[in-house]
Amino acid sequence: MITGASSGIGRCYAIHLAKNGFDIVAVARRSELLATLADEVRQYGAETTVLEADLADHPGVQTVISNARDIDHLVLNAGITHVARVGTSSADEIERLNILLATGVVQVCEAVVPRMVANRRGNVVIVSSIAAFTPMPKSAVYAAAKTYVMSYGRSLNLELADSGVRVCVVCPGYVRTELHTNAGLEHLRQRVPKFLWIEPIDVVKSAERGLAGNKAVVVPGLVYRIARPFLGSGLAQKIWRRTTRRR
What we know:
Structural class: alpha/beta
Strand order of the largest sheet: 4-5-6-9
Number of strands: 9
Helix content: 40-55%
CATH class: Alpha Beta
Strand content: 5-15%
Number of domains: 1
Distance between the termini: 36 Å
Order of helices and strands: EHEHEHEHEHEEHHEHEHH
């Protein structure tokens, strides 16, 4: 089961798993894109189920939980980016963002992982962000949500040692998807240097290597792995803000 499967990392993950012999349950809001994805993954012999659900609200989360029986590989990828100065996001916006990126992810895991443990097998990938490692002015709510799921995933990885269930949190930086365009941040494609962008397949492969090595957290892209220990420093913050300045 892959959430946020209609585009970007989720779509790439669905195709990757279909090629490797998995049947797919693809979850997203956009039914037309899900249908296109289903047609593509069926070419690899995968039985495909599409599930239209908005994971930014509780009914959508419950829909996923109800349809997540007998899942061997769970990829929790659904998400958006959110840019706003403090005090400019409505309570509803904050609640929906937190359900989508944080509390909804935990609710799905709390329902699905015990079934995996009972079967003594299963993989869980939680897609967080490099934002979990660094302060993000004007994106404080987003960064906090990504930190929340990273902490949860790290703890779950340790808790499930020797259970047969592996949990890996993947924390990408800038990925070439439509995420930033949808958020009105198209200018970042010109503003952010090319060496800071990675492809969706890089995220997928990093996550799969992390699972294979039973790593709690992985960061795709050499430049991000090198920079990660220094992201919280004042100098790094100054360079980062200047390089990725948002309008």
